[in-house]
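During the second year of the project, the team shifted from modelling isolated chains to modelling whole assemblies. The rationale, set out in the original proposal, was that interfaces cannot be judged from single-chain predictions alone. As a representative example for this report, we include one of the complexes processed in the last quarter. Its constituent sequences, exactly as entered into the pipeline, are reproduced here:
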Amino acid sequence: MSKRIGKQTVRLSEKVSILSAASTVGPKEAEGPLSKYFDQRVEDIYFGEKTWELAESKFVEKNMGLAIQKANLKPKDIDYVLCGDLLNQCTGSTFGIKNLEIPFFGLFGACSTMGESMSLGAMLIDGGFANYVLTGASSHFCAAEKQFRFPLPLGTQRPPTSTWTVTGDGAVVLSRKGDGPKIVEITTGKIVDMGVTDANNMGAAMAPAAVALLKAHFEDTGRKPQDYDVIATGDLGTVGRQLVVELMEKEGYDMDSRYTDCGIEIFDAKKQDTHAGGSGCACSAVTFCAYFYPKLVSGEIRRMLFIPTGALMSPTSSQQGQPIPGIAHGVVIEGCKKGAK
Amino acid sequence: MSKRIGKQTVRLSEKVSILSAASTVGPKEAEGPLSKYFDQRVEDIYFGEKTWELAESKFVEKNMGLAIQKANLKPKDIDYVLCGDLLNQCTGSTFGIKNLEIPFFGLFGACSTMGESMSLGAMLIDGGFANYVLTGASSHFCAAEKQFRFPLPLGTQRPPTSTWTVTGDGAVVLSRKGDGPKIVEITTGKIVDMGVTDANNMGAAMAPAAVALLKAHFEDTGRKPQDYDVIATGDLGTVGRQLVVELMEKEGYDMDSRYTDCGIEIFDAKKQDTHAGGSGCACSAVTFCAYFYPKLVSGEIRRMLFIPTGALMSPTSSQQGQPIPGIAHGVVIEGCKKGAK
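Output from the structure prediction step:
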């Protein structure tokens, strides 16, 4: 009866299907290399609202609605919604989903939230508690800068290791039935604290958590990086990705070109002046939904290890001299057989 | 295979056992009517730390450790820890549990967190994904006042409808085996927004969510209030409890004296000047762990409906004129047979 296959990994018995995936992004993401893949591109960073925080909630509301619509369902068909964001007390999510009237589990996993929500959502279905679960994550560049760094009108210079918070929402509908890509295994991360304190180098803060997750996953499953068509971390950017490659090499794993990071995929760092890459809860969420999900549906990706990464800090904890602990959550997704869908 | 018995309710098949419960509280709680029931009473509101936020994390760390110890387990035996708090980005929880090195799902359910963590934890066990899950919730009066209301040194007068955030942490170890009280049903709340905007009247903001949860639970299970020995909401206080009684009466339910609120139990409002009662994530968490859990173990309570309640707002959302949506999560717990333990 136990579905545990290792210290941090469970294998699902029912093969939970990802019935639909939706992505809605802001203007900068719409100018990036993944532009054509997004479902909705919003030119107005305020999304017609008076504040950035309300704009984020609108990204959530519109995109969650779209994910349900793409699954040919109504909100009342969904048993649970699980989501979260970076705003204090996760108001991006709560004000975004309140009108859906779906039983709600609020999550805080920082930028690992998409991994956390997919993990818990898949287990709720596989455990027999739900037929359909909506999971997602959101972030907003302006709201995040204001809250975590500096007021935007200051025009503060950003160091090269800094990343750019993605504006948008990514959401999937998970189902007990259906022929979509399947969530087959879940490796849940522990908090890893290496004492990094630089809030402008989140890649370095989160890389050790990604490495710990990768190691745990490979040990639990007996696999190696080459058993996946794609391994994608969440928002480590170029600095964090390089650290993962180097640290994994020391552990005896060759993280070759099949390993990428959503923060690298989503922006053209040189043209778009995003320094080390994209970040924020939405970074892995929209990149998965827009870019990887269709490749899983087409069968171009047969097996993917998706690892959203999060930095578990607050401005208060940083001001009080505390380090930035990281976490990462791994989800293994198997693509549809080529030509099957 | 489906465990769903209604629109918002699932019935567990394995009867997940609550193996242990631990509570650690601050000085004001130690002076209250439940004083003798708490496992640990800390006289120093700083718990030996330099800041209130670090103190909250220490409450989490010490109490989570105690819950594991009371279950005769080690941290490595626990498959998942699920917890959350009120601090921005939930740093009370993350800095509190990081040294436990247990796979972690961070939650944000505001003061409903204990209900959310017990719900998800129980489903992870019942679904076959875990043998032992640690779930909990924490809050700290000073850290919460500073973050949500006014700096404490101002000595701001508090209106009679206001509640007093409980300082402490409550945690339980859930198990696949064991003869402790059992979690048998879970009713998951939707967000309810009645447009209340008064951050000094959280009881009124959350009462409609508690009423919606009660109605959904009774409809899903076909039961009535009199089918429970105890029904306890989380932190509505006297104002919120009265609203629940009146609103439920209109719905045809008689919420008699078996219905209480943890915020009413934990303080002696007159003697302790706590106005409408206790609140905060820890309010329902420590009251459940210290006061109700032993009565479930002894069999004095045969069936309890535990409903932690939360207000999903932030200072930013309130400053931007947004209402205070509420949520409530219901957990049905059956006590041990008298004399069985």
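The domain at 182-334 of chain A is CATH 3.40.47.40 (Peroxisomal Thiolase; Chain A, domain 1). The mean pLDDT of chain A is 96.
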